[in-house]
Structure formats: structure tokens, C-alpha cells
Design brief:
The mean pLDDT is 87. The chain has 250 residues and is an alpha/beta fold. It has one domain: Rossmann fold, CATH 3.40.50. Helix 7 (227-237) crosses helix 8 (239-247). A 6-stranded mixed sheet has the order 5-6-7-3-8-9, with helices on both faces. Strands 2-1-4 form a 3-stranded antiparallel sheet. The termini are far apart. It is built from 8 helices and 9 strands. Bound molecules: adenosine-5'-diphosphate and magnesium ion. Adenosine-5'-diphosphate binds next to helix 2.
Length: 250
């Protein structure tokens, strides 16, 4: 596989001020401590407890690269809610080649991407309908998981940078494996993926760089050493024992 990274590393060029919630975010604190975070694989996977700042970080990378903060390609510029943080202004991103394709996908705003495609296609234009490059069927007429896979299968063309925030949210385990096969194919076409996930299945992607965010560190770990993997394995190995322990005092 040709390694052709679009993003080589991320870091902070300045520290967010005290009056910003970013100031106390574990991801920011630890990124500052770590200096630059080198991307060592074309699949970089961020994992960590809720609230550590994975979405904030992914969104800032996407915005710094010119993607719409709510998801989509660089051609989307809709905004339903000005919710993105100003972290992108503090990021230092070391870039390699320029990607020909790209998509920022956040599970919670897939709906807005679908609506925006419908709106744009209502405007008379000579250009082909946008929906045709997404499989031809309105994304509102598919299930969440189907929409997600239609997007990847029809719209992700390769030579691209794809930023995915919790892609597993929409997918059954077997469809998640379909997604992994799609990612595998896209990597052969010089793509790079930056993903935030809670899924131990996705974390097992071959040669992915798994970066775990905790309250006091941001570091690359083998996926089997992540808290997510360990706790899921412990549960699946013996659900009864875990549930008994969990409900002991209730
Ligand atoms: N606009 C905001 N104002 C204040 N706090 C925020 C804002 N957006 C996110 N946060 C806080 O930042 C933290 C990190 O959020 P997020 O990046 O979504 O975490 P993760 O994706 O790792 O679960 C959360 O505790 C959240 O409450
Ligand atoms: Mg998140």
C-alpha cells in the first residue's frame, strides 16, 4: 500500500484561553503536553470516554481543512446551528499531499446532509443532480445505516481524506464489517481515515493507529489495551458475572 498521508500530525500552536471550555478539555490539555501527535497510519482511530473531546478534536481538524462543521464535503456550507468550537484556530496541522476527495461525517448531522442535498437538487441547474452521486435515492428514504453505507459506497471516491465521528452509531455489527471492507478498498486508492469510535470491532482494523484519550494522556496503544476493548471483552466473556456485580447494591 502506498502511504500518502494528507495529514501528518496535529498539535496546538497556542493554548485556548481560560474563559473557553476548551481550556479544561482533557484532549486539549494532553495534546498540549504531548506536543505534536504524529499520524503513523492511514487509519487513525481516536477512542476514549465520553466527554474527553474526540468530537471537538475531529470537528476542529475538519473545519481547519475547510469542511463544513456539520458534516459533508468541502462543497457543503449549510449551518443549522452555529455549534462548532473555535479550536480550529489553535490547531497546528502538518499536511502532506492535497486530497482530491473528502468527507466529514458526524452521525448526528447525517440528517442535515440529506436535507441539504434535497434542497440543492431543487435549484434548477445544468449540473447533474447531487443525489445521483449518492446512489440516486433520497437519503431520507433510507434507514440511518443504509444512508450511511450509501454515502460511503457511492460518494467516497478514493484519493481522499475521510473524517468519521462514531460511524458505528448507525450500523449493525455485520454492516460495520461491510464498512471496514469499504475502508480497506479506499485505502488501496490512497485514502486516509480519521475516526472516533467506541467500537472494539472497528478498533481492530489492521494496522490502524489507535490513539486513546484519557483524563491524563493521549497516546497510541494496541487496541487490545484500550479500556473499551477490555471492558467489552470482560462483559462478553461472562455477562452474568458482570451484571451481578453491576446490580449488586441496587
Ligand atoms: N459549546 C460548548 N460549550 C461548552 N462545553 C462544551 C461545548 N461543546 C462541547 N462541550 C463539552 O466538551 C466536552 C467534550 O465534548 P465532545 O468533544 O463532544 O466529547 P466526546 O466526543 O469525546 O464524547 C464535553 O464535556 C462537552 O460537554
Ligand atoms: Mg463524540
Amino acid at each position: 500500500m502506498i502511504i500518502k498521508k494528507y495529514i501528518e500530525s496535529i498539535g496546538l500552536k497556542a493554548y485556548p484561553p481560560e474563559d473557553s471550555y476548551l481550556h479544561d478539555l482533557p484532549a486539549i490539555r494532553n495534546l498540549w503536553k504531548a506536543g505534536a501527535l504524529a499520524f503513523e497510519s492511514n487509519v487513525v482511530i481516536f477512542v476514549g470516554e465520553n466527554g474527553t473531546g474526540k468530537s471537538t478534536l475531529l470537528e476542529a481538524v475538519a473545519v481547519a481543512l475547510g469542511f463544513n462543521a456539520e458534516g459533508g464535503t468541502r462543497n457543503f456550507n449549510f449551518e443549522t446551528r452555529a455549534s462548532h468550537s473555535d479550536l480550529y484556530q489553535y490547531l497546528k496541522i502538518s499536511r502532506g499531499a492535497y486530497p482530491k476527495d473528502g468527507f466529514f461525517l458526524r452521525a448526528e448531522s447525517l440528517y442535515n446532509v440529506a436535507s441539504n442535498i434535497e434542497e440543492l437538487d431543487k435549484i434548477p441547474a445544468c449540473a447533474p443532480r447531487i443525489i445521483d452521486s449518492y446512489g440516486g435515492v433520497s437519503l431520507h428514504q433510507r434507514s440511518h445505516g443504509e444512508t450511511f453505507l450509501a454515502l460511503v459506497q457511492n460518494r467516497f471516491g478514493g484519493n481522499g481524506l475521510y473524517i468519521l465521528d462514531e460511524p458505528e452509531a448507525a450500523l449493525s455489527p455485520s454492516r460495520l464489517m461491510t464498512l471496514m471492507a469499504e475502508i480497506h478498498d479506499l485505502l488501496k486508492k490512497d485514502s486516509q481515515f480519521i475516526i472516533a469510535t467506541h467500537s472494539p470491532i472497528l478498533m481492530a482494523f489492521p494496522n490502524a493507529q489507535v490513539i486513546e484519550l484519557t483524563s491524563d494522556a493521549i497516546k497510541t496503544v494496541p487496541f487490545r489495551e484500550t479500556e473499551h476493548y477490555k471492558i467489552t471483552k470482560q462483559f462478553l466473556d461472562n455477562p452474568e458475572r458482570m451484571l451481578k456485580y453491576l446490580f449488586e447494591d441496587s
